[in-house]
Write a structure and sequence with these properties.
By secondary structure, the chain is an alpha/beta fold. It contains 9 helices and 8 strands.
């Protein structure tokens, strides 16, 4: 089985984003473009500059309330999400808290044909397995592409998140952040995750491996 990686890119200018993205895609199967690190008015230019690579990209525009950097208001963010969908990336990451409340946005994105990666994060803890399962079932109603990420305060927490693969092993990305959750970023690949998120050096999220670290681990299996 070929295990795949997705490099998180957090550049703050369109030109730098294109340069780093092209380098990342020479080494990784996918890349996540964190468009929320750009000024809102720079996003259209960035999308135009990288459009030929977008079929291998997950596009994310995370608001501050969900741990992101987006600087505009929610109306502007929704407008930009629609624009991103029109460019047809591999996946567009939209938070469950956003897409579950905005049916008009859901209809619009589905009309473009761009697959939605509906995501949910808990930056403080890992809820009970029953609560995680309930969340998974709710998210399934929106898309078959689902991302559930929690914060592990123990090894048991990481195990709880990974147990979600017993409920769905296709299209699910589930792991835990933090030191206790670090190994779940690798184990999720064995359980069915389409890829794992990595950095080009400095972690973008707690416990994230670098691309070189993960490639080294894969090399040991050959």
């Amino acid at each position: 089985m070929a295990y795949k990686t997705c490099v998180s890119i957090t550049e703050t200018t369109p030109r730098r984003l294109r340069s780093v993205l092209e380098d990342a895609l020479r080494k990784s199967e996918y890349a996540e473009i964190r468009l929320d690190f750009l000024r809102p008015d720079a996003v259209p230019e960035a999308l135009h500059m990288v459009k030929k690579h977008l079929r291998r990209c997950v596009c994310t525009l995370r608001p501050k309330a969900e741990g992101g950097k987006f600087q505009g208001d929610e109306k502007e963010r929704v407008s930009i999400l629609k624009l991103i969908a029109e460019y047809g990336p591999y996946l567009i990451d939209i938070e469950y808290s956003t897409i579950s409340k905005n049916k008009e946005l859901l209809r619009y994105v589905k009309k473009t044909g761009t697959p939605i990666l509906v995501s949910w994060h808990d930056f403080k803890k890992t809820p009970s397995f029953s609560r995680l399962t309930e969340k998974l079932q709710q998210m399934k109603k929106i898309s078959r592409h689902i991302k559930i990420v929690t914060t592990a305060n123990s090894v048991v927490d990481a195990t709880s998140v990974l147990s979600l693969y017993r409920k769905q092993n296709s299209g699910l990305i589930a792991f835990a952040m933090g030191d206790f959750g670090r190994i779940s970023r690798i184990l999720c690949l064995y359980l069915g995750s389409p890829y794992t998120y990595v950095s080009l050096g400095r972690p973008v999220a707690p416990g994230q491996f670098s691309l070189d670290e993960v490639k080294s681990l894969f090399a040991l299996q050959k």
